[in-house]
Design goal:
single chain, 788 residues, Beta-Lactamase, 22 helices
C-alpha cells in the first residue's frame, strides 16, 4: 500500500496563504464599493428630498393647505401625470420661480427627447436646492459640479468673487487638488486670466483650448481642454465669476448649454451675496466711509449708489453725496444735486463712452477708470455746455466714487504751449553764464538729434556745429548777445551728428543783474527747414486758392438764391377769420453770412392757422438747405392735426436723425379761429411778445431744448386767448441781439419799442426793423399777428 500524498485528505482543502489574502482584499473592495454606493444614494436621496420639500412649500403657499396635505397632493399629481415625485417637484418649482433657470428648463423640455430634457431640468433644480442648502461657497461648487456640470462632461469648477479693486478670490472649487486651490486662492488686479476676461468684458468667455490660448488659470496643467467663464451679475454689478473646466476640447455647444451656464452663473451671484465672505474680503457697504473720504479730497467728488428696479436690474445711480469742493456744471446748489439720479442731473452723460457708461462699467467690474481729458456735458437753460476735465472713477463696495478736476487756465496754457512748441518745432533753452549750467527742453534735444542724456550744445560753441559758410553770421550773433548784451536773432545751417543739415533760426536775450552784469541767456531754436518748401508750395497753391474762392462765392450765391426763393423779403398780409398776419424778412448784409432763419404762416386744412419762426445754426448753403428741410417738414407735419408740442417733438427727430447735424431753435403756434385760442410751444427760442392795450409782455410759457441737440425731447404747450386788437410778435434773435448786451437787456428794448408804437401791423414790423439795435449782422424774421 502506497504512502498517501501530502495533498490528499482534509489538509488538501485548506487554500494557500496567498489565496486567502487575495480573497480578503476582494471582499474588502466590494464592501468599500457597496458603502460608497450607499453614500452616493444617500446624498441623492437627500438632494431629492430637498427638491421635494421646496415643491411642497410651493403647494402649501398656492393651495393654502398644510404640509401633510401638500405631500399627498404632490404624490397624487405625480401618479396622474405618470412622473416621479422628483420630476414633478422640478416642474412645480419651474412654474413658481419664473427665473432664468425656468427659462432654461423651458428650452430643455421643448427639445426632442423629453426624457433627457426632463432629466436635465431635475439636475439643474437639484443643483439649485443643494446650493441653497449649502453653508458656504465651497459646498455650492461641489453641488454644481455633481448635479449640473458633471453630466455635461465637466470635471472641475471654480467660483471666484470679484473685489472692488477688480481682484479675484477663489471662494469655492471642486475637482481640483487641494494644493492647486491653495495656489490660486487670490488673483491680483491686472493678471490676464479667463475669469478676468469674463469680469472686464461682462460676457461669457468660451475658450476651446486653454493650452493654446496661453492664459494662466487654475488647473491649467491637468485640465487644458475647453474652459468657460461666465460673469455672476446681480443688480448691475459683477460680484464674481463661474469657471467650468473640461479635460478635452469640446465641439461647439448648442444654445441650451450656454443658457445653462448663464443660469448657473446667476445662481452663483445670489450665493456670493448671501454666503459669508472670505476673511479679508474688502467688499461691503462702505458708503459712510466713502463720504468721509470724499470730504477730504481737494477736487469735486460724487458718491453714487446703484438705483435698481423692483426686479434687481440696474437703472441708474443715485447721487448719495457731493463733497464741499463740488461745483455743479450747470450752476445748481449742492443741496439740489444731492439725491438726484445721475441721468436726471446730467442727462447728456448717457452716450456711449460718456460718464454714465464709464460709471456703470466700473460699478459692474470693479476695474477703476482714469482719464486725463474727458468731456463733461451739462444742460444750462436747455443749452449743452461742455468742459474738459480729468476724471477718476473707482468702486468701493456697492458704491462708486467719481472725482473730476476741470482743466484750469494755467494747465490749459501749459498744454497749449507744449503742443505749440512741438508743432512749431521750437526748442527753448536757458544758459547760466556764471555757473555754466545749460537747460534744454525735450523739443530742443529732438531738434538737434541728440539723446536726452547727452550734453547740450553751449551757445558759445555754436559756430563749431554750423555750416562753414554761416560762421561769420553766428559770430555776429554771439557778439550781439554775449558782448553787447542785446537781444539778437539769426538763421543758420546746423550740421547734426547724423549728417543731416537743418535750417535753424535762433533767438536769444541776455538776463542782467542790477549792475548790468550778464547772468544768463534765454532763447529758443526753431527748425525752419520747411519754410522754403512752404513758400514754393504756397506759390503753387495760389491758383487753387483762387479757384476755391470762386467756388465759395458761387455757393454763397446759390444759398442766397435758395433763401430768397423760399423766404421773400416781404409777402402780402394774410387776413382770415378776423386774424391779420404780416411777415418781414431781412437777410444778412454780407452774402457769405447767409443764414437759416425761416418763418411760416399758412391756413391748414383744419381751418387752423400755423405760425412759426426758426433759426438754424450756421451759415451758407448748409444753413439755407437746413432751413428748407425744417420749414417744409413742419408744414407737412402740421397737416396731421397734431398740437405744437408734438410737432416740435417730431421736428426734433427730423433734425437729429434725418439731417446732417442740424441744430435749430423754433417757436410753433396754432390759432383756432372758433375759440380764439392760440396754442404754442418753443424749442430754445426767444419768447413771443404780446402787445395788449398799450402794454408789451414777453410770454413766460414753456421751454424746451433746441432741435437736434438730443435724440428724444419733450415739449410742453401753453395757451393764450387773443382779445380784439391784441398783437403777437414772433421773431428771431437777429432782431434784438447785441454783442455787448445780454438777452434780457435786448428783450427789454423790444418790449419798450412795441409798447410805444400804435399803428397798422405792417408799419409796426417796418418800425421794429428800421430801429433794431442789433449788431450781429444776422438774418432777421418777424411774424406779426393782430386780431381785428
Amino acid at each position: 500500500m502506497s504512502k498517501p500524498d501530502a495533498t490528499d485528505g482534509p489538509l488538501s482543502a485548506v487554500p494557500p496563504r496567498t489565496a486567502v489574502v487575495g480573497t480578503g482584499l476582494t471582499r474588502l473592495a466590494a464592501t468599500v464599493e457597496r458603502l460608497s454606493r450607499e453614500v452616493r444614494e444617500a446624498h441623492a436621496v437627500a438632494d431629492g428630498r430637498a427638491l421635494i420639500e421646496l415643491a411642497k412649500g410651493v403647494l402649501v403657499e398656492r393651495l393654502g393647505c398644510g404640509p401633510a396635505e401638500a405631500a399627498r397632493q404632490l404624490a397624487l399629481l405625480a401618479e396622474q401625470a405618470g412622473l416621479g415625485q422628483l420630476e414633478l417637484a422640478a416642474d412645480v418649482i419651474n412654474q413658481a420661480a419664473r427665473d432664468q433657470l425656468t427659462e432654461v428648463a423651458g428650452e430643455l423640455l421643448g427639445q426632442p427627447g423629453e426624457g433627457a430634457g426632463r432629466s436635465a431640468v431635475v439636475r439643474l433644480r437639484t443643483a439649485e436646492s443643494g446650493a441653497l442648502a449649502a453653508g458656504d461657497t465651497q459646498a455650492v461648487a461641489e453641488s454644481l459640479l455633481e448635479h449640473a456640470l458633471a453630466p455635461l462632461g465637466a470635471t472641475a469648477v471654480a467660483i471666484w468673487s470679484a473685489a472692488m479693486d477688480a481682484s479675484l478670490t477663489l471662494r469655492g472649487s471642486a475637482g481640483f487638488v487641494a494644493e492647486e486651490a491653495r495656489r490660486w486662492r487670490y488673483v491680483p488686479p491686472g493678471i490676464a486670466t479667463p475669469a478676468r476676461r469674463a469680469l472686464t468684458e461682462r460676457a461669457d468667455v468660451w475658450i476651446p483650448d486653454l493650452a493654446g490660448s496661453g492664459l494662466p488659470s487654475i488647473g491649467r496643467h491637468e485640465l487644458h481642454g475647453t474652459r468657460v467663464t461666465a460673469p455672476a451679475e446681480s443688480g448691475g454689478r459683477v460680484v464674481g465669476v463661474l469657471e467650468i473646466c473640461w479635460p478635452d476640447e469640446l465641439p461647439p455647444q448648442p444654445p441650451q448649454i450656454r443658457r445653462q451656464v448663464e443660469a448657473l452663473a446667476e445662481l452663483c451671484a445670489h450665493t456670493l451675496e448671501s454666503t459669508p465672505a472670505v476673511e479679508g474680503d474688502p467688499d461691503g457697504p462702505v458708503a459712510d466711509e466713502l463720504v468721509d473720504l470724499a470730504e477730504v479730497l481737494l477736487d469735486p467728488a460724487l458718491v453714487l449708489r446703484p438705483h435698481l428696479s423692483p426686479t434687481g436690474e440696474l437703472l441708474d445711480f443715485r447721487i448719495h453725496h457731493v463733497n464741499n469742493r463740488f461745483v455743479d456744471l450747470a450752476g445748481r446748489p449742492r443741496a439740489t444735486v444731492t439725491g438726484m439720479l445721475l441721468l436726471e442731473a446730467y442727462p447728456l452723460a448717457a452716450g456711449e463712452g460718456d460718464l454714465f457708461d464709464k460709471v456703470e462699467h466700473v460699478h459692474a467690474t470693479g476695474e477703476p477708470f482714469r482719464s486725463e481729458r474727458m468731456a463733461l456735458t451739462a444742460l444750462v437753460d436747455q443749452v449743452p455746455l461742455s468742459v474738459t476735465a480729468g476724471v477718476g472713477i473707482s468702486r468701493h463696495g456697492d458704491s462708486v466714487l467719481v472725482v473730476w478736476r476741470v482743466e484750469d487756465e494755467t494747465a490749459r496754457l501749459a498744454n497749449l504751449l507744449h503742443h505749440a512748441q512741438r508743432l512749431g518745432r521750437i526748442g527753448g533753452f536757458e544758459e547760466d553764464v556764471v555757473g555754466g549750467r545749460i537747460t534744454w527742453n525735450s523739443q530742443l534735444f529732438t531738434l538737434y538729434g541728440l539723446e536726452p542724456t547727452e550734453d547740450p550744445v553751449p551757445l558759445a560753441a555754436l559756430a563749431k556745429h554750423c555750416h562753414p559758410d554761416d560762421t561769420a553770421t553766428i559770430t555776429r550773433f554771439l557778439r550781439t548777445v554775449l558782448h553787447h548784451r542785446r537781444a539778437g536773432s539769426t538763421a543758420f545751417r546746423f550740421q547734426r551728428q547724423d549728417g543731416i543739415v537743418r535750417h535753424i533760426r535762433v533767438v536769444a536775450e541776455p538776463v542782467l543783474d542790477p549792475d548790468d552784469h550778464l547772468l544768463a541767456v534765454r532763447g529758443a531754436y526753431q527748425d525752419v527747414s520747411a519754410q522754403h518748401w512752404t513758400e514754393v508750395a504756397l506759390s503753387a497753391t495760389r491758383d487753387q486758392l483762387a479757384h476755391t474762392e470762386q467756388q465759395a462765392a458761387e455757393q454763397s450765391r446759390l444759398a442766397l438764391q435758395l433763401q430768397r426763393a423760399i423766404m421773400p423779403l416781404t409777402q402780402p398780409s394774410i387776413e382770415a377769420f378776423e386774424l391779420q398776419v404780416a411777415v418781414r424778412y431781412r437777410p444778412a448784409e454780407q452774402e457769405h453770412l447767409v443764414g437759416g432763419d425761416w418763418y411760416d404762416a399758412v391756413v391748414l386744412p383744419s381751418k387752423q392757422i400755423l405760425l412759426s419762426v426758426g433759426d438754424i445754426t450756421g451759415h451758407g448753403i448748409k444753413g439755407a438747405t437746413g432751413m428748407v428741410v425744417l420749414r417744409n417738414a413742419l408744414r407737412g407735419l402740421a397737416a396731421t392735426g397734431a398740437g405744437p408740442g408734438q410737432l416740435l417733438c417730431w421736428l426734433n427727430l427730423v433734425a437729429h436723425h434725418l439731417t446732417d447735424n442740424i441744430f435749430a431753435t423754433a417757436v410753433c403756434a396754432l390759432y383756432d379761429p372758433e375759440t380764439r385760442v392760440l396754442r404754442w410751444a418753443r424749442a430754445g427760442h426767444p419768447p413771443p411778445v404780446l402787445v395788449r392795450r398799450g402794454t408789451a409782455t414777453a410770454l413766460t410759457g414753456p421751454r424746451g431744448v433746441m432741435l437736434g441737440a438730443i435724440s428724444e425731447a419733450g415739449y410742453d404747450e401753453d395757451e393764450l386767448v387773443l382779445a380784439p386788437e391784441d398783437t403777437l410778435l414772433l421773431y428771431t434773435d437777429g432782431l434784438i441781439e447785441r454783442r455787448d448786451s445780454d438777452l434780457d437787456e435786448c428783450l427789454n428794448w423790444l418790449l419798450t419799442a412795441s409798447a410805444g408804437y400804435d399803428g397798422p401791423l405792417e408799419r409796426r414790423l417796418d418800425h421794429l426793423l428800421d430801429r433794431s439795435p442789433a449788431d450781429t449782422d444776422d438774418d432777421t424774421c418777424i411774424v406779426g399777428v393782430r386780431l381785428i
